[in-house]
Write a structure and sequence with these properties.
Order of helices and strands: EHEHHEEEHHEHEHHEHH
Distance between the termini: 12 Å
Number of domains: 1
Mean pLDDT: 95
CATH superfamily: P-loop containing nucleotide triphosphate hydrolases
Low-confidence stretches: none
Largest sheet: 5 strands, parallel
Bound molecules: 2'-deoxycytidine-5'-monophosphate
CATH class: Alpha Beta
Radius of gyration: 17 Å
Strand order of the largest sheet: 2-6-1-7-8
């Protein structure tokens, strides 16, 4: 069977990551969370006091950043590593969510991350989620999904997810953060979040996680068969 690239783009907290992770696992593909990469860069910038208005500092910092994903056998999922250190827990904190959109709008940051993402997806057999995967990183991806959901539902899901990780965050604070990130992510100059022309829209407002996983796995199997004409004849 031929391997394909599955690009899942969409707004924050629509269930992209949870869905993409399970779709990858069902197909035996690698899951790459590109939001985690921008979060790791944001953490690096904060730890190293990189000024967002100093292009030289940014270029130097970006050249020193290596983001990788390592299997956490206990959880059965991949943790994000920044220059060899596990930062999975730290990058999910609210203070990172509050500044990640400011960092991910910077061109030098995007250029470096997109190059890493293309390397990670070169051999195909990947499910990559983010904002610009179907439009910029892999415009030739065989399957593109654009996810959206009602804002209130997204905030509720994010609050529950944070609570499960032991973080109690006020509902209004989450709504404000999602609205702020939507605005920056969709209006920035560099690779703004937008639906690719050939993307399939999946509105997750009324869907259970299992339903959205099934929908995308089925779409993927269809594309894989289309791409593997020999196997569909046998
Ligand atoms: O998916 P997430 O919420 O963890 O992403 C965090 C931020 O990273 C998001 O607000 C925008 C940015 N991002 C991006 O600009 N491009 C991507 N491919 C993925 C995320």
């Amino acid at each position: 069977m031929k391997k394909i690239v599955i690009a899942i783009d969409g707004y924050s907290a629509c269930g992209k990551s949870s869905t993409a992770r399970e779709v990858a696992s069902a197909l035996g593909y690698t899951y790459i969370d590109t939001g985690a990469m921008y979060r790791a860069v944001t953490l690096y910038f904060q730890q190293n006091h990189v000024s967002l208005s100093n292009e030289k500092d940014i270029a130097k910092a970006v050249a020193n950043i290596e983001v990788s994903f390592v299997l956490n056998a206990e959880k059965g999922s991949f943790d994000t590593y920044l220059n060899g250190l596990n930062v999975e827990k730290e990058i999910r904190q609210m203070y990172i969510s509050e500044s990640v959109s400011q960092v991910s709008r910077i061109r030098a940051v995007r250029d470096a991350m997109v190059a890493q993402q293309r390397r990670l997806g070169k051999k195909k057999g990947v499910v990559m989620d983010g904002r610009d995967i179907g439009t910029v990183v892999f415009p030739e991806a065989e399957l593109k999904i654009f996810m959206l959901a009602d804002m209130h539902v997204r905030a509720e899901r994010r609050q529950k997810e944070l609570l499960e990780k032991g973080q109690m965050v006020n509902f209004d604070e989450i709504m404000d953060n999602l609205e702020m990130r939507d605005t920056i992510d969709t209006t920035r100059q560099e690779s703004p979040l937008k639906q690719a022309k050939d993307a399939i829209v999946v509105n997750t407002t009324f869907l259970l996680l299992e339903e959205q996983i099934d929908e995308i796995v089925n779409l993927a199997l269809g594309r894989i068969l289309q791409e593997s004409p020999e196997s569909s004849r046998s």
